[in-house]
């Protein structure tokens, strides 16, 4: 099942989207918003699936064309957005570029940060920045949405709390990160609004590519229309999505609609390219002494997509243009 | 005007509370929840004020007794909870206890962290912990709730976006903080669910005690019924609530219902006591070589309150008991 939120008010209008992303239908009789559906998932999911099945069978004459440009984020605002760094190749490169050792605990204790969730962007919304010198970067990731997760939930139990998956562009202001992390309290200014794929999908849509809490498909990125990378999100992921949820649940429960991100997808095989500019700049620094690839500027475009085994977009693409505002 | 959310579903039932905290009345005809009111504040505030005026005048026969034990947090879940460290005496003591210098930038660049907002506790809810060895501490603070704050909002402009104030117990697990901060991405596990005062109040309720974006009254704390502190929240606050909002708005807008905390209230005058146990332990460490005051254990109680000039509770008290769950 695929779900989206068309732009409407603060929380969007929930629609069920056909598997091929061509048609959609609003379901106010079931739930007006995705958050409302997640708040009562056990009861509403069967009704949403009935609509989805009928839509995919071409039985709903009142379905409308689906346009990703009409989409808000699946959750236009959420009660929690917390992001991991599950791909340690990315973290190793960051450390290597500044000649720092990787702490051994990083291989057993997930690195995660709490993000702002009051303003989540739609797939075609601009990346709004106030200063190009802040060093704007994409971070292409996979995220899951949970239902209610009790305190103390284990990784084995966490799997069943993963209700939906989607893609994220966790926009990062690289120039602001060193000062902010030096202060010791994590990211605040350096992580402005993230953007999400047009649709969120239930795990069963991913068939065999979703296993052991990892999505085993390449995450594809382009910058200004040029191929930038396609590392596989299922490989070299040290902590699965279930591991990340269990880590959070160590000291607290998670409310329905919590969004948990994987961190930037990153593989050791450099031929696969990248999901963020910082990483290629680190490799340039390690190999050539200084970075060469520039960060994003006004008018630059970013595209993020994931295809199934047959080459069809699963979530629809994130396509954003950087917009400088004063 | 004073507002509260009685426990009801996930988001509570909005009530207007009388100034003396004795009576309340639900206002579903205006807004079912506090978030709904904040989403449309400019339009609903006049209607809420009419109810408040009538309630305070004793004109509402259908008002009910107000019991803080019935209260959820004013926002039982929020789209943003971000907390500052505006009282630098607290930060100085932390640093001094471990012989670290205070970076000069800390006096001009606010220290803030993004907190989890999917689970905000009511004033009489327990502090739920899974391990006493985690070192459970209170942090008594003042927080504001904003309406929509545009990107780039200055401190001078931020004042008008402060719609409500409340008290917070920003529960901290001191034993988990060193490891988590060493990882560099801020607090995740070490800041479980915060609790909030029974009511949130509009700035005009505070009269002359709310000025220049600071609340000039002592914040009173008790542990197991014994006086623990009463530092003044308006003194030695390096960054006002407006400064903190403006800092956040540097790179992003804030959604309506964003909660922005002050950080633990702390004054240099030690006779005024403390708003967190860590601080008295730091002073014990500096003076005696090691801490003596224990952190909170199962069954311990914490009370946090603020009185107006006439000694009346403004927000109602936070009164929590530590509950160990396995």
TrEMBL record, chains A, B:
Keywords: Hydrolase. Residues 1-77 form the Fumarylacetoacetase N-terminal domain. Residues 81-322 form the Fumarylacetoacetase-like C-terminal domain. Pfam families: FAA_hydro_N_2, FAA_hydrolase. GO terms for molecular function: hydrolase activity. Coiled coil: none annotated. It comes from Chitinimonas taiwanensis DSM 18899. It comes from the Bacteria. The keyword ATP-binding does not apply. InterPro entries: FAA_hydro_N (IPR041072), Fumarylacetoacetase-like_C (IPR011234), Fumarylacetoacetase_C_sf (IPR036663). The keyword Hydrolase applies. This is Fumarylacetoacetate (FAA) hydrolase.
């Amino acid at each position: 099942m695929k779900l989206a939120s068309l732009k409407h008010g603060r929380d969007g209008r929930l629609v069920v989207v056909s598997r091929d992303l061509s048609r959609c239908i609003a379901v106010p009789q079931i739930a007006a918003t995705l958050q409302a559906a997640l708040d009562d998932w056990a009861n509403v999911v069967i009704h949403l699936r009935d609509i989805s099945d009928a839509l995919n069978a071409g039985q709903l004459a009142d379905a409308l064309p689906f346009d990703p440009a009409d989409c808000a984020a699946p959750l236009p605002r959420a009660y929690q957005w917390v992001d991991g760094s599950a791909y340690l190749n990315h973290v190793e490169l960051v450390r290597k570029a500044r000649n720092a050792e990787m702490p051994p605990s990083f291989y057993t204790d997930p690195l995660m940060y709490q993000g702002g969730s009051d303003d989540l962007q739609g797939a075609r919304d601009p990346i709004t920045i106030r200063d190009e010198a802040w060093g704007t970067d994409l971070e292409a990731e996979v995220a899951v949405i949970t239902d209610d997760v009790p305190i103390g939930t284990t990784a084995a139990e966490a799997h069943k709390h993963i209700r939906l998956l989607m893609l994220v562009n966790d926009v990062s202001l690289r120039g602001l990160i060193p000062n902010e992390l030096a202060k010791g309290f994590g990211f605040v200014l350096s992580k402005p609004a993230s953007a999400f794929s047009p649709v969120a999908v239930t795990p069963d849509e991913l068939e065999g590519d979703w296993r052991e809490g990892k999505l085993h498909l390449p995450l594809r990125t382009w910058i200004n229309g040029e191929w930038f990378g396609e590392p596989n999100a299922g490989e070299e992921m040290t902590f699965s999505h279930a591991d990340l949820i269990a880590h959070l649940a160590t000291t607290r429960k998670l409310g329905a609609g919590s969004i948990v991100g994987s961190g930037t997808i990153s593989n050791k095989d450099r031929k696969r390219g990248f999901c963020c500019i910082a990483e290629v700049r680190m490799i340039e620094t390690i190999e050539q002494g200084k970075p060469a690839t520039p960060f994003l500027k006004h008018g630059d475009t970013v595209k993020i997509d994931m295809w199934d085994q047959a080459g069809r977009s699963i979530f629809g693409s994130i396509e954003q243009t950087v917009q400088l505002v004063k």
